[in-house]
């Protein structure tokens, strides 16, 4: 970064640290103790769709890699498109298998990165729920290397539970690097895995 960048207020982008995903299981213990949320066993990686044979080959490799780790009766890895045109690779595990789910998310991100599609990666999320039916996602922002909670309000489309999100932030701040800029806590409406 040069002097001109400093004067103009430009900052060097944070390099993604995918190993931060492995802190999710310890954060899940804290989250359960503090707020009663437990893993749902669902997680997803979101990326901007790119056309082309290389990208399709990467999709096939990632799905084959993740499906090879499942038994024949286990749920498959799914590729979904959302209403905004983004792709989601969704992994399903048993609720008590958060560590393998995190490994799946890490593998997808790593494979995309290795094949040159890192710039298309947007976020990863792991789903949580409580006994009253509330849903919550811990979202990892790939380009920022930080996490934030996202809690949609049940039964109210396009509304989120900001109070719960702030409570979760306070509870897990010691376990995960939390995104400090609340303007970057993007809603992931209808995200698979949530």
TrEMBL record:
Protein name from the UniProt record: DUF4192 family protein
InterPro entries the UniProt entry points to: PspAB-like (IPR054383)
Pfam family, one: PspAB
């Amino acid at each position: 970064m040069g002097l001109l960048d400093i004067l103009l207020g430009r900052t060097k982008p944070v390099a993604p640290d995918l190993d931060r995903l492995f802190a999710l299981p310890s954060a899940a213990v804290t989250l359960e103790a503090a707020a009663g949320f437990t893993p749902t066993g669902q997680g997803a990686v979101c990326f901007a769709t790119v056309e082309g044979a290389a990208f399709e080959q990467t999709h096939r490799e990632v799905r084959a890699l993740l499906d090879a780790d499942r038994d024949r009766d286990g749920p498959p890895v799914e590729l979904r498109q959302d209403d905004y045109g983004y792709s989601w690779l969704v992994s399903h595990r048993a609720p008590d298998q958060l560590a393998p789910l995190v490994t799946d998310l890490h593998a997808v991100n790593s494979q995309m990165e290795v094949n040159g599609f890192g710039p298309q990666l947007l976020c990863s999320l792991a789903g949580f729920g409580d006994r009253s039916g509330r849903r919550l996602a811990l979202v990892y922002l790939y380009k920022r290397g930080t996490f934030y909670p996202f809690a949609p309000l049940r039964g109210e489309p396009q509304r989120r539970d900001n109070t719960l999100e702030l409570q979760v932030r306070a509870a897990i701040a010691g376990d995960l690097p939390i995104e400090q800029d609340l303007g970057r806590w993007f809603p992931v409406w209808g995200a698979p895995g949530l």
